[in-house]
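We append the chain.
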Amino acid sequence: MSDNQIVKTLIIGSGPAGYTAAIYAARANLKPVMYTGLEPGGQLMQTTDVENYPGYPTGILGPEMMEDFKKQAERFGTDVRFGIVTKVDFSNTVKKVWLDGGEEIHAYTIIIATGASAKWLGLESEKKLNGNGVSACAVCDGFFFRNQEVALVGGGDTACEEALYLSKLCTMVHMFVRKDHFRASKIMQDRVLNTKNIKVYWHTETKEIIGDIVVNAVRIKNIITGEEQEIPINGFFVAIGHKPNTDIFKGVLDMDEQGYLITKTGNTKTNIAGVFAAGDVQDKNYRQAVTAAGTGCMAALDAERYLTEHDIH
């Protein structure tokens, strides 16, 4: 394969991190090629109003915002392709990836922006009302439910953090925990239990989220007694964790016990030279569009420096 057939910068994934990396890489004349993955646009494609991204004073729909990102990346020459990467080989200076159609791509640098997917309960009503009162991000969507009652399911640190965040905006937060205890750290547990407008329901599972167009109630069941009840609410938040989309990199790139890619402090470098990670795939703390975009910018700059250092033009 000749040098002009080797992609300078290959971007895997197409959320805010991937598109921002593409914008910076394209403007630096790295001629980036992007493979969008199964969900072009990432998690924001499932989001209705985005009000916390700078530059959109009246808010914007998630899919519209991602279309804007895509157009900007393409304007500077990014080659955006629909395709799913199924296998990688990063053992040499020229990296190899294989697509679901069998195609093989070679690249000098790789930016991984495959994101993380929220874990869901798997209810039909949850899917139907997703974006219409059902959310997996309290920081993103809690503002829409200020001065209203909401419910949240989960028992870990993230669930406790989100419940506390919602308690500052909402009149009441009904918190459903399957066991008789939290999995969260002691300090987070104490904060939740000492917050007056958070009501914790132990041994509780969600049976159905009720509403035709928007959420207006939830039906829950006590696992021990079998008793069911309906609680009127306006918003339902799922906080049972996220799964980073990193399965194809197992055994190749360093990741933590949850599967998030590990990057070096202060940059986006992975344990393999020339491979960078940006966005939610390496960030389990913030998971915001704006932080993902920031690391996408960093990854493109890191890739550009790598190419310069290795005299690849």
Q: What stands out?
A: Residues 3-117+242-309 form a domain with the FAD/NAD(P)-binding domain fold (CATH 3.50.50.60).
